[in-house]
TrEMBL record:
SUPFAM superfamilies: PLP-dependent transferases (SSF53383). The lineage of its organism: Bacteria, Bacillati, Actinomycetota, Actinomycetes, Kitasatosporales. It holds the Pfam family Beta_elim_lyase. GO terms for cellular component: cytosol. This is Threonine aldolase. GO terms for molecular function: L-allo-threonine aldolase activity. It comes from the Bacteria. Keywords: Pyridoxal phosphate. It comes from Streptomyces uncialis. Residues 67-301 form the Aromatic amino acid beta-eliminating lyase/threonine aldolase domain.
Length: 412
């Protein structure tokens, strides 16, 4: 299992740095200063730049003569209405974090079904990134339909050997490579849960970019589930925040728990405004990003093959969303140093941070293709791969284990 995608790394060769914070500052400066990148997250920006962006775009998404929000009215309520409309649900509630929204949803369903057991993948966000909050705060228990690095199957849901009240599906499953089931498989999963008298909750932190893979609208995807959580910063480049959408009675109950959890924030207009701007500016472009991610993934394979890397994997081969993984047989620090050096020396940031993979000497990075990435041609990607590999010490070509534990003997 891959652990959380952290940001730790050593400084590039020849750099004199004391410890993590300085190293992080150098890495951030390198990627922020790169003229060419596949995406430019909000964390690259300065405070002044983020404020300027917000004031420059917010007026296109909401009337700025409106009064400020107070405990969830005004622009926050407008955002909630927008989300409910987009997803086709009765209501939606804004939350300061997705972790809070999802915990509240799952505890509400546990109370309604009378069953505190949640079936979910062991690589799902609550299991990897939330410090056991489901059990510590809500007394819930989890079961895993599969430990394979893929979405569960309907048969695995039907064959679980104990009852569960909620099936939580993370769409896409980030840690496994931003993987999605097919539309038919998703319907079968929902049917299998219903046959077990369970409700279905979608962890849709990145749901916004899933529609192209399914060939369906967001409303059609959301309609399969009893509740849906969506994020405003992962794909929409907002400041933060999340929403829980579903039946009005569930959302009303969730608002009560939001207050108990400390999520009834006095004013949240900057976050809400940035979310509305993201829905207006980024959401319509996500299908374009998904399509170009497939072009980039194919070009990465070409570039890595030409560079004679001893083994690699672009996973999945055809990205399901605008994000995917690249695996290489080198340690994470070496690869991150190469990425930083490439950004500093050439102004091109192909990859960012690398992280230890599923076996010693194997590392993984996440590739995101957004607005800046759509300007890259396949030839641009191949050249960038050559520049990156040239900065990586290349060992002799030997078989190395893949992320699934199988051996690989050369470029794939």
């Amino acid at each position: 299992m891959i652990g959380p995608m952290d940001s730790s790394t050593e400084p590039p060769d020849g750099a004199v740095e004391e410890a993590g914070e300085l190293s992080q500052a150098r890495r951030r400066a390198a990627f922020r200063g790169a003229a060419r990148t596949l995406w430019r997250p909000g964390t690259d920006a300065t405070l002044a730049e983020r404020l300027a962006e917000l004031t420059g775009t917010a007026g296109d998404s909401h009337d700025l003569s409106d009064g400020v929000d107070v405990y969830g009215d005004g622009v926050v309520a407008a955002l909630e209405g927008r989300v409910a409309e987009l997803l086709g649900t009765e209501a939606a509630a804004f939350f300061p974090t997705g972790t809070m929204a999802q915990q509240v949803a799952l505890r509400c369903w546990a109370a309604r079904t009378g069953n505190p057991v949640v079936a979910l993948h062991p690589l799902a966000h609550p299991e990897v990134h939330e410090r056991d909050a489901l059990s510590v705060l809500s007394g819930l228990r989890t079961v895993h339909p599969t430990t394979e690095r893929r979405q569960p199957t309907a048969d695995e849901i039907r064959d679980l050997d104990e009852p569960f009240g909620t099936l939580m599906l993370e769409l896409p499953l980030r840690e496994a490579g931003f993987l999605l089931p097919t539309w038919d498989e998703l319907n079968d999963l929902v049917d299998a849960a219903r046959a077990r008298d369970a409700v279905v909750h979608l962890d849709g932190a990145r749901l916004w970019e899933c529609a192209p893979h399914f060939g369906r609208s967001l409303r059609e995807v959301a309609a399969l589930a009893d509740s849906v959580y969506v994020s405003f910063y992962k794909s929409l480049n907002g400041i933060g925040g999340a929403a829980l959408a579903g039946p009005a009675s569930l959302v009303d109950e969730a608002r009560a728990w939001r207050h108990r959890y400390g999520g009834q924030v006095f004013q949240q207009f900057p976050t809400a405004l940035s979310a509305l701007a993201g829905l207006d500016r980024e959401l319509p472009r996500l299908p374009e990003y998904v399509a170009h991610a497939r072009t980039v993934a194919d070009a990465l394979r070409t570039g890595l093959t030409r560079a004679r890397v001893p083994w690699f994997r672009v996973h999945p081969e055809v990205p399901h969303t605008h994000q995917f993984q690249v695996w290489l047989p080198y340690d994470a620090d070496t690869l991150t140093r190469a990425a930083v050096r490439q950004a500093e020396e050439t102004g091109t940031a192909l990859f960012r941070g690398w992280h230890p993979g599923a076996a010693p000497g194997l590392s993984v990075t996440e590739v995101t293709v957004a607005g800046p990435g759509t300007e890259w041609t396949p030839a641009d990607v191949v050249r960038a791969v050559a520049g990156f590999v040239a900065r990586v010490p290349v060992p002799a070509s030997v078989p190395v284990p893949g992320p699934d534990g199988e051996a690989g003997s050369g470029p794939r």
